[in-house]
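ok so for the tutorial part 2 we go from a plain amino acid sequence to predicted structure tokens. step 1 is just haveing the sequence, like this:
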Amino acid sequence: MKRFLIILLIAVLVLVSGCGAPSEEAEGPGTTNETLQGNYIHSVELSEEEWALAELISTGEQDYGVFDYHFDESYSGIVFKMDVYREGNLVQTSTIMNTDFYENVRDGRIAVLVNDTDIWVNLESDGGYETSHRSCSDLQMENNQNGGKVLEFKGGEVDDKGQVVLCMVGLYQQEPEGGVMQKESVPENIGRYERFILIYAEVN
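step 2 — the prediction. this is what the tokens look like for a chain of 204 residues:
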């Protein structure tokens, strides 16, 4: 299973190899050359054909996001982390991957894969790949039939903490008061979920 997940991540990155980092071809809806400047990790907009190919190699039991990234020479490395919240309280912070940038290469792609047991991160830079994963039992509730999950891939520019949120997963047994905020599972709403997993990158 682990071998399959690694192959899937690499395959997804290969599928979007034509998208490239900042260029007109890489722009998705609402994206401009101006917003692609600076230090960032931006979601890659896959074409219908690329999505179809990605789904073809997927078991349908995981979600994945693909990102372009760019950082200037003021950063020497990147760390991928996972925060786990229960009932709105932070109970665990784990490192998924910690890597230095290769020489002057600070552009490439990232794939994040999430299933019910693990989180995988694949970093591509200058043709080289680095893969790592972290188990997370909080990704699955005890009784899925009575519960639900809200998952959203994000990305953006580096904030004042040197971080970029890549993925948020909210899980609940009983629907939160006021309903589940689809597409709005921002960190301010962590308390609405029984379990909340935040996956983010931190540059240094």
